[in-house]
Amino acid sequence: MAIRNRKHDASEAYWRLPITWVLAGAFGFLMIAVAGTMLFFVTATAERQTGRMMREIGDLIMDRSLEIVEEFFAQEEKVGLIVADIMSDPQIMSAPASLQNHLSDILSRQTAIDRLTYTYPDGLQVMVHLAEGEAFNSIEQTEPPQLPEGAGHESRFWHPPYFDEELQATYMRLVIYIQPEDQAGHSRITVDYPVRQLEDLLERMVWRTGQQPFVLFNNTMVLASTEPLFDEIPHTAEKPVPRIEDMTGTSLAHIWDYTENSFRLPVEFGAHVDVTAQGPVLFIYAPLKRHSQLPLQVGSYMSAADFGQPMTILNRVAFLALGVLLVGLVAIVFIGRAIGRPIRALSRKALEIQDLDIEGAPRLPRSHLKELDETNASFNGAIGALEAFSRYVPKALVKVLLKRDFLGLKNTELRQLTIMFTDIAGFTTVASKLSAEETTQLLNKHFEEMSQCIVATGGTIDKYLGDGVMAFWGAPEEALDHVDRAVKAVELIHQKELSHANEHDEGQRLRIRIGVHTGTVVVGNIGSTERMDYTVIGDAVNVASRLQELGKEVDSNATVIALASEETVRQMSAQYPRNLVGAFELRGREQPVNVYRIL
């Protein structure tokens, strides 16, 4: 029977994974994918909610803040023009000084302006001091006002903050040019606002806890801030108000840093979140709308963590999802092991079948999984059938059949093998003294020991012949040392028989005759498609049989006698003994055969 090896080519890369890993990996990946998707959507939702909350609160704060500051300056500009119109009236100017001062005192309580100067086109300048409790007027002649390039009637110009050494206060100056109806040229109105008035506005700008409002001039100078540090920094002529960088240790100092962690919010006003030493901070800011000529930046900042309720919920969901994921992974591992355990048992059984290590082995257990239970039941049936099959067919042959694929059932080949025949001398006499059951037990025990010796040396049992055995070495698996294997089997048989020398009565002791011959034979499947034998045929088989029979003539009383042909002896290793008995004419052979006693 020609057979093809099923082993993988050594050059082929073939990797395998335990089913527990596959199940845990597959379900784990699925759970991670599902949990990741859920976390992604929850995160996206939380980020949208946080962003929306920041935008809505930012809108409220900025609308409120801008409205407060816009109204303040609109009111002050309006009052300033009224005051300038009143105090520059010729009738007021000619009134007694006490009346002028009394009028200035009344006006000072209606405005935040500390000082107002009205300069006529001819250079006459009227200065009105409106500081509460210090109201007074003064008139002097100065240079006529020079209209700046591009300026016209009611043109307004804001100047950077300055520190007045005389009044020891910081002011913002607004200059307005107007065209009097009855005079040529332009008059100039100069209005000085004390910066401290802006601090009162900050209190009104606060809308929520933790909010820190501020007012900047040209984005670099801090006109007002609720930070305690702002009040601690002295105002001087060189530095009338603190600069952004002077606000060390506050978040305001980092408003324009824009670190790599910052991100802008999609709103109409300016808004961004950045990470400072104080943690994540939300900055919101915007210039004045109705006073675009006034370079002020009004805004607030607050901890971005205050908007973290959605993120807190997200963190809880994330931890919960992580916990569920870990529990799920552990459960998957246990489920995978539970499923993998019977499959591994199935795999082990398959390996046992491959080695024909199935006799007396426990069967696969029942399973609560329908497919596995049916597979185990089918496999147990196959094991039983194979176990029965292996009792009628040589195990070596069954192993080969399990490891290889059939290419044809009737293929045979010529191969040099070593064939052995054994027989129990005088078995009829021994059997006559025993019952049928005792005879069967004795014969089965004998065959079991013979089989062990043959299989242990890699031989194949061809068939049992009454009380004898026919076996061969070198097929189905090739073995270059098939001669030595056969001779070794003879030695093992001899040792077995010697060990039983004292176990039986003299009348029940077995005497074994063995014939061994090496030659070329036809080996393979012989028979029909319904019934086949894996066997050997040829002259060499006959010679081995005749040598076994010849043992009766050479030494009929030997416990074990083994005769071998010259072809066998020639290929034997030197370690094994051999004694030439002589040349014998064997039945079926024309030429005498040199016979050696090897045991």
UniProtKB/TrEMBL annotation:
Q: Give all residue intervals belonging to the HAMP domain.
A: 337-391
Which SMART domains does the entry mention? CYCc
The molecule here is called Adenylate cyclase
Q: Where are the transmembrane segments?
A: 21-42, 317-339
Q: Which GO terms describe its cellular component?
A: membrane
The residue ranges of the Guanylate cyclase domain are 418-548
GO MF terms, alphabetically ordered: adenylate cyclase activity
Tell me which Gene3D superfamilies the record gives: 6.10.340.10, Nucleotide cyclase
User: Which GO BP annotation is one of this protein's?
Assistant: intracellular signal transduction
Origin superkingdom: Bacteria
Q: What PANTHER family is this protein classified in?
A: ADENYLATE CYCLASE, TERMINAL-DIFFERENTIATION SPECIFIC (PTHR43081:SF1), ADENYLATE CYCLASE, TERMINAL-DIFFERENTIATION SPECIFIC-RELATED (PTHR43081)
User: Which Pfam family, just one, is annotated for this protein?
Assistant: Guanylate_cyc
What keywords would UniProt list here?
A: Membrane, Transmembrane, Transmembrane helix
Q: Return the InterPro entries for the record.
A: A/G_cyclase, Adenylyl/Guanylyl_Cyclase_3/4, HAMP_dom, Nucleotide_cyclase
